[in-house]
Each structure stands twice: as C-alpha cells, then as structure tokens.
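In this section we walk through a basic example: taking a raw amino acid sequence and producing a predicted 3D structure, encoded as discrete structure tokens. The instruction is simple. Fold the sequence below.
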Amino acid sequence: MSVFQTYLQLGFFHIFNLRAYDHLVFLLALCAPYVLRDWRRVVALVTSFTLGHSLTLALATLGIVTFPAAVIEALIPVTILLTCVANLRQAGRTEHSPARRQPESVLWALPNLLAAVFGLIHGLGFSNYLRELLGQQSRPVLELLAFNVGVEIGQLLIVSLILLLGFAVLRGFGAARRDWLLVVSGAAAGIATILLLNQFTAT
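The resulting token sequence is shown next.
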C-alpha cells in the first residue's frame, strides 16, 4: 500500500469512527436544520467547514501555528453548543412573521461563515492526531494531503447518513421537522455539555 493510501485510510477512519464522537456530534448538529432536499446547502456548509479545518490542519501539522491541546479539546464542544443554540433559536422562530425573515443571501452566508470559523478549531483537533502519526517528519505534504482527503470522504459519508436518517424519521415516522430539530439539537447540546465538563474536571 502506498503512503498516500495509508494516510487516506487513516484520515477516513479517524473521522468515521465512534471514538471521534465529538466531531460526529458537531456534524449532526450542523446538519440538523436541513432535510434531504436541502443537500445543496449542506454541501456548501461542509465545504466551508472543510476550508476552515484544512487551513489549520495544514498550519498546525507543519508547525506554523501551535495551540495547547487542552484548549482545543475544550473549544470543540463549545462549537457544538453554539451550533445547537443557533438551531434552537431557528426552531423557536414563528414561521408567519415576515419581519423576522432574513434575505436568502444571509441565510446562506452566515451559516457558511460560522461553519468555516468552527472548522478552524476542528482542524487543530485533527492536527493533534496527525502529528502523533507523523513523528519527526518536517515536510509531510503528501501525508497531509492524503489524510485531509480521507477526513473529507468520511465526513461526506457521515453527512449523507445523517440526511438519510432525517429523511427516514420525517417521512417514515411522520415526525415534524421542528421536533426533529429540537430533539437532535438538544441531544447534541447535552453531549457537548458533558464533554466540556469532563474537559474542565480533567484539568
């Protein structure tokens, strides 16, 4: 197996893994407001998240920027909580109030911007694992590229499964979209709170 294939698999299984539950829960919260027909918006969100974490993954892995691992591990559940708060606010809005409706450009731009910012934080989290794999290599460009591609393939698969699960719940069980958003966001917020508390007690 080539170096590229090896790190591609490592990246894929780093994200497509129950032990990466913090990143999985973030993706769940990120996709909660959307249904299968909103796939274009979801792709835009994932692309924005990708741009953010690809940047910091590269910078941190190459040693250009450094952050304490404990700080990053605490910030990741914060990104989940903030995403859930935005979801719960959206669920609480009245659909019949024209004054509260935002222009379509804002509805696309603001979530994408937040996803990119949160991606910066998650990229630093990915880099901690990748640096352990690389050891003392100073210019791991090929490994970095392969790992990042693997993460993205795993991430796209996870997002697809979340959208399909939402479709099954909404169509198969007749659940209301607002109820789905509230339940998923509430569960994600609960997990994020536990992660954050654990991080504080560990320090």
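Looking at the output, two observations stand out. Residues 94-99 have pLDDT under 50 and may be disordered. Helices lie at 3-15, 21-31, 39-61, 69-92, 104-134, 141-172, 177-202. In the next section we compare this with other chains.
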